[in-house]
Predict the 3D structure of the following.
Amino acid sequence: MLTVRQLLKEKPAGFFSVPLDATVLQALQVMAEHNVGAVLVMEGESLHGIFSERDYARRVVLLGKTSATTLVGEIMTNKVCYVGPEHTVDQCMALMTDKNIRHLPVLEHGAVLGMVSMRDVVRATLDAQAQTIEQLVSYIQQ
């Protein structure tokens, strides 16, 4: 079973973050620049929350706030679900489904190693299934 550590090795290194005092507009610019749906909210090396497109829609737009004046720290999700590098892709899928989230930071000993998205998890699952099918077909054809 593929672990998060293995999954992170297949992705470009790093993750995207903004500081607590960044405006929502600045966070959206980072997200757009890197084509991601969420960024971590950090102060130094410390994870304080996560800001996603869903946070923007529900806590800025629907509440009549403005992106230019609202700080990410005011509207971020501060109860962050996360996984460790030894979690499996299946465990990530289960957690994401259960919590209705699409992004999971990866932490080891309190340090952020990266982030996995639902897209990463689905892609890894589909790749594993394709490999299993290929092995079964090969076995049957022998």
